[in-house]
């Protein structure tokens, strides 16, 4: 997952956002072309605050998170990121699963 995904991730348990991230392993990817700043809409993980015209959002797009630990600041739930995929359980009452019937 790109670091910028933190902008749209929320806790499936209580809906809090943004989640705190502790990066275990990451990869830098080349961001080509001009990055429209800010990329993030509500939360910029590169600065840990609200995005603005001077946010270093090239960081949000250029950091591929391979393994990390996500923590909900509200209810304390913890979620892993493994192989670049956030292991969030689907929110209760919403069918996020594809197939599986
Ligand atoms: Zn950003
Ligand atoms: Zn929560």
Describe this structure in words.
The chain is mainly beta and 101 residues long. It has a single domain, classed as N-terminal domain of TfIIb, CATH 2.20.25. It has one helix and four strands. The chain has one helix spanning 57-62, and strands spanning 20-28, 63-71, 78-82, 85-86. It has a four-stranded antiparallel β-sheet. Strand 2 and strand 3 form a beta hairpin. It is globular, with a radius of gyration of 14 Å. The mean pLDDT is 90. The site of one zinc ion has 10 residues, from helix 1. One zinc ion binds at residues 11, 13-14, 16, 72, 74-75, 77.
Major sheet details:
4 strands, antiparallel
What is the rounded Rg?
14 Å
Q: Quickly give the structural class.
A: mainly beta
Shape: globular
Total number of β-strand segments? 4
Bound molecules: zinc ion
Number of domains: 1
What CATH architecture do you see? Single Sheet
Helix share bin: under 10%
How do the strands and helices of this protein lay out in sequence?
Blueprint: E1 20-28, H1 57-62, E2 63-71, E3 78-82, E4 85-86
Residues 11, 13-14, 16, 72, 74-75, 77 line the site of one zinc ion (ZN).
Summary?
With 101 residues, this protein is mainly beta. Helix content is 6%, strand content 25%.
Pick out its properties:
101 residues, mainly beta, N-terminal domain of TfIIb, 1 helix, 6% helix, globular, binds zinc ion
């Amino acid at each position: 997952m790109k670091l910028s995904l933190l902008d749209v991730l929320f806790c499936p348990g209580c809906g809090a956002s943004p989640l705190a991230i502790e990066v275990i392993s990451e990869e830098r990817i080349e961001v080509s072309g001009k990055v429209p700043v800010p990329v993030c809409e509500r939360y910029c993980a590169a600065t840990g605050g609200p995005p603005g015209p001077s946010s270093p959002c090239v960081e949000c797009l250029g950091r591929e998170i391979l393994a990390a630990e996500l923590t909900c600041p509200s209810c304390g739930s913890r979620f892993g990121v493994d192989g670049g995929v956030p292991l969030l359980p689907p929110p209760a009452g919403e069918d996020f699963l594809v197939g599986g019937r």
